[in-house]
Amino acid sequence: MLDWEVIQRYLPLFQEAAVLTVRIGVIGIVFSIIVGVICAAVRYYRVPVLSQIARVYIEISRNTPLLIQLFFIYYGLPKVGISMSAEVCGIVGLTFLGGSYMAEAFRSGLDAVQPVQRESAFSLGLTEAQTFRYVIMPQAISVSVPAFVANVIFLLKETSVFSAISLMDLMFVSKDLIGLYYDTVESLALLVFFYLIILLPVSILGTLLERRLRYAEFGA
Question: Which fold has domain 4-218?
Answer without folding.
Answer: MetI-like fold (1.10.3720)
